[in-house]
Amino acid sequence: MSRFTKAIAVAVLIMTVGLHWAFLQSLAWATMFVRYSQQSTFKIALIQTFDGKHPCALCEFVANGATENKKSKEKKLEVKKFELLIEPSAAYRFRPRQPVLLDSFRAVHLGRQEEPPTPPPRIA
């Protein structure tokens, strides 16, 4: 498998599992921490980043996208009843088997009737 194919497979797996939201949230937190640490101390920047009172635009985007993703998964899991549109017709119903009596067969159907040759043939 080529590198490109492997990369596509990994990307599809990441999107299927939902890791892209975790990646985007981590990116948002890193960006927020850098921005807040330039304006204040390390401790205050850390508190403002993770308190939830100061979300950035990317944080809001991730929150909205993750909730919509969960809602769409819930909609996909609805179970629907499978109904057959065509009822089976009588032409395809099988009748029960009748017992077969061996007396009704002719001798030809019972197998070979001649005796094996004597002496038995030799394979050279």
Low-confidence parts, pLDDT < 50 over ≥5 residues?
none
Mean pLDDT: 79
Specify the number of helices: 4
How helix-rich are the residues, as a percent range?
40-55%
Element-level helix/strand string = HHHH
Number of strand segments: 0
Biggest sheet features: none
Terminal Cα span: 54 Å
Estimated structural class = mainly alpha
Approximate shape? elongated
Content of β-strand: under 5%
Determine Rg (CA atoms, Å): 38 Å
Q: Assembly type of the shown chains?
A: single chain
Task: Give the helices and strands, then pairings.
Elements: H1 3-17, H2 19-39, H3 42-50, H4 57-76
Helix pairs in contact: 2-3, 2-4
Would you mind describing this structure in some detail?
This protein is mainly alpha-helical and 124 residues long. It has a domain at 24-76. 52% of the residues lie in helices and 0% in strands. It has four helices and no strands. Helix 2 packs antiparallel against helix 3 and helix 2 packs antiparallel against helix 4. The longest helix is centred in the N-terminal third of the chain and has 21 residues, at 19-39. It is elongated and about 110 Å long. It starts with a helix and ends in a 48-residue tail after the last helix.
